Amino acid sequence: MNLKQFIVDKSKALNIDLIGFTDCEPLFDLEDYLVLRQRKSMETEFEEKDLKKRINPKLIFPACKTIIVIGLSYNVDYNENPDYDLKGILSKSSWGLDYHRVLKDKFEQLIAEIKRIKDFEYKYYVDTGPLIDRELANRAGIGYYGKNCSIINDEYGSFIFIGYMLTNLELDVEHSKKESKCGNCSLCIDYCPTKALERPYRVNPKKCISYLTQTKNWIPYELRDKMGVKIYGCDTCQKVCPKNNGVKKSYHEEFIPWTTMGYINIEELLCISNKQFKARYGDMAGSWRGKNILKRNGIIALANMKDKGNIKLLEPLLKDPNPMIRECAAWAIQKLDCNYGKAVIEKRIRIENDEDTKKKMRNLLNNFLTNL
């Protein structure tokens, strides 16, 4: 029996859209770039700090011989619009059921099928492993790198979730690393709101809106201005990509946004409890960061709507228990109405008990005076 073909056939039976195989050789060609990123402080808090573990599969799984990479398209068609006014945008990656759960379930089913005929050792990851999953996907033939650093598949485009499994299986591996087909197109670079795509195939993750909507770190004012009304993730560079035109759509109902319709009610987000948040949004991928991070993003969205009427929703947040929320609310009020915001912030500073938040509010006032 051809074990590799058996795995391919079972993946199709399990409705896994894409599957590829690569060896466990270290990703040495990425090492210099990773070192450069580290030196330039471009790493995010979500990344493995040990660069050797990012490029060497055998440091993660010493018995590794073959890596199996799978992909699921989440490019579902859905056009309904919720009937509330203050809508925040969710990336397609967080439309439906948490993709970590969906891909893990696919892996478990595939593992069970393989074990029916051959016992083996493995470790699998879905967006949580130390290795660079897009590089593994490229080497396994899943797709090629776009200039926006996404993996693009000829059949499904770039709206693809990727998972990989390190195994001790000895399988025939074709070195099918795919070369880019972007040509002279630069739409993703041209349309990136924060210019995080600093050049083709190179992204500054700390400027990427997808990162900004997830980080707990303080977000610079000039980047807040570019976030628009995005509450989790950003699809801009993929939406403008011509390679996503006319591709095969996803048929995975798990990724249809039955609950959210692809949006989040910002007014509701500002006032619901943690328990209510988990009950309503706990099944989506974006919920992993918790209510307060998305709440902060909602505040930024209210400011970017440029409607002074939103101030009535923001003022109560100056008393929020979370200092991050208080600081962001102060910024949003001043952005919507400079003079009124100045008075509100001056009043809040007198009773603010968190020194770092007080310092940030003073900086807001200084910026206001500088721009007069």
UniProtKB/TrEMBL annotation:
Question: Which parts of the sequence belong to the 4Fe-4S ferredoxin-type domain?
Answer: 173-202
Please cite one Gene Ontology biological process associated with this protein: tRNA queuosine(34) biosynthetic process
Domain of life the protein comes from? Bacteria
Tell me the keywords, alphabetical order.
4Fe-4S, Cytoplasm, Iron, Iron-sulfur, Metal-binding, Oxidoreductase, Queuosine biosynthesis, tRNA processing
Claim: RNA-binding is one of the keywords in the record:
no
A molecular function GO annotation: metal ion binding
InterPro entries attached here? 4Fe4S_Fe-S-bd, 4Fe4S_Fe_S_CS, ARM-like, ARM-type_fold, QueG, QueG_DUF1730
PANTHER family to which the protein is assigned, alphabetical: EPOXYQUEUOSINE REDUCTASE
Name of the protein in question: Epoxyqueuosine reductase
